[in-house]
Specification:
The protein is of the alpha+beta class. The chain has four helices and eleven strands, in the order ααβββββββββαββα.
Length: 213
């Protein structure tokens, strides 16, 4: 964003400087040879710092705990978190919108350690105005959809934590899209369905898995 006009505060400061300059000129005319003011010493020019005062520390945007986008895989973003040891774990992220372009849900997926029934997990965040008792419905392409409960809600929205088997991740790799369905509180007789594009999922999942051994 750029500013094309001078703000009222800037104009006021400029007027004050002009008036001050006029007064200074008038005084100089009354006495053309004023006594020069003594130059301040270095100690007077720079007052000593008060040890009881904190001068503050600039907050960086790339410190430990900050997030960043490592790479894009078509419909997906590889989002990572900076850590002290530089391991920087990542996950796949996609923002889901309705037919009118409104943001409806966030979907974040990550691989899990081997040995468990779930080889990957996902966090789905939906609006607070979601009817939680109707749960979250999700299915890939023409496969049978599954129902997932919501775990908790915060000021950011309501969250469902989902586990995927190896077979389900293979469905993601072969599929074109998944459909997530929720029910709004204000219209419990209606359903809101949004599409999760699976374009770029295979490459993105491989990249994320490499950061989370």
């Amino acid at each position: 964003m750029t500013f094309s006009t001078i703000s009222p505060l800037t104009k006021s400061l400029a007027m004050a400087l002009v008036l001050a300059s006029s007064v200074s000129t008038a005084l100089w005319a009354q006495d053309a040879t004023p006594e020069p003011a003594p130059a301040p010493s270095s100690e007077e020019a720079v007052p000593a710092a008060d040890p009881s005062l904190s001068m503050g520390t600039e907050v960086g945007t790339d410190g430990v705990g900050s997030s960043y986008v490592e790479k894009n895989f078509e419909a997906w973003e590889q989002r990572c978190i900076r850590t002290e040891d530089g391991s920087n774990p990542c996950q796949l992220y996609q923002l889901l919108r309705d037919s009118e372009g409104n943001a409806v849900a966030e979907f974040s997926l990550f691989n899990l350690p081997t040995g468990g029934q779930a080889v990957a997990g996902a966090t789905v965040v939906v609006p607070l105005e979601t009817l939680l008792t109707e749960n979250l419905l999700m299915g890939v392409d023409a496969s049978t959809a599954k129902v997932y409960p919501f775990t908790f809600c915060s000021t950011m929205g309501c969250v469902a934590r989902i586990g995927f088997t190896a077979a389900e991740i293979d469905q993601f790799k072969r599929g074109a899209k998944a459909v997530l369905t929720i029910v709004p509180v204000v219209a419990p007789d209606q359903k809101v369905a949004v599409e999760l594009s699976l374009k770029g999922f295979t490459a993105g999942y491989a990249a994320v898995s490499a950061t989370n051994p």
